[in-house]
Amino acid sequence: MQYIHYYNSPLGTITLASDGEKLSGLWFDGQKYYGSTLSEENEQRELPIFEQTGQWLDLYFGGQEPDFTPPLSMQTTPFRRAVWEIMLKIPFGHTMTYGAIAKEIAGQRGMERMSAHAVGGAVSHNPISLIIPCHRVVGTNGSLTGYAGGIDKKVRLLTLEKADISKFFIPTKGTAL
Predict the structure, then answer these.
(1) What is the mean pLDDT of residues 11-38?
(2) Domain boundary at 31, 61, 91, which?
(3) How many domains does the chain have?
(4) Which of 22, 34, 130, 151 could join 71 in a cystine, given CB atoms 3.0 to 4.6 angstroms apart?
(5) What pLDDT is attached to residue 177?
(6) d(Cα 40, Cα 74) in Å, to the nearest integer?
């Protein structure tokens, strides 16, 4: 059985999902891949993991860097898990490029190189937005691209973290990455 809870954020309603012990999903309403790890059988319930995640979100949306991470359930492929674990290390208010993540994954696997496009797929399928900070991943060319919650939310989240977004641009349709 999976459980859900709703959190009202300054950027809209967020749905939280859990197996009862760990957080397995965190999605903005309407985001791409919304509910991707959520089974059809779920029940709305108050749980300690949702209370803990709510505290994390309260700190985060208050402009503070949370000093803890709620327990996470990352049921996925080894490749996606590796990408998500790298994203968990991106500091509050900082960014990392898809290419830099690809280079780190290649190094971990003893490969000469790794596709940044493959990394992008793993980043976009992250079911635990914000806590696994996919909004901190940017294009190698300085573009603010690829956020399942929408570019407008990505800009607002990075601004909330006081990241220097002046060096980035928002690509228009047809812009090569």
Answers:
(1) 90
(2) 61
(3) 2
(4) 22
(5) 40
(6) 18
How far is the CA of 158 from the CAs of 43, 55, 136, 138, in angstroms?
32, 20, 7, 11
Flag whether 90 is in a domain. Answer: yes
Catalytic pick from 114, 134, 144, 157? Answer: 134
Please state whether beta strands 23-28 and 12-18 pair in parallel, antiparallel, or not at all (unpaired).
Answer: antiparallel
Is 134 labeled as catalytic in the residue annotation?
yes
CB burial readout 158-168, b (16+ within 10 A) else e = bebbebebeeb
pLDDT digits (tens, 9 = 90+) for 50-94: 999 999 999 999 999 999 999 999 989 999 999 999 999 999 999
Question: What is the extent of the structural domain holding 87?
Answer: 78-160
Residue with tokens 């780190």: 104
46 occurs within a structural domain: yes
Q: Would 69 be classed as within a structural domain?
A: no
Q: Has residue 175 been placed in a domain?
A: no
Can you read off the two tokens belonging to residue 86?
């790298």
The token duo for 116 is: 């940044």
Token duo for residue 163: 């990241």
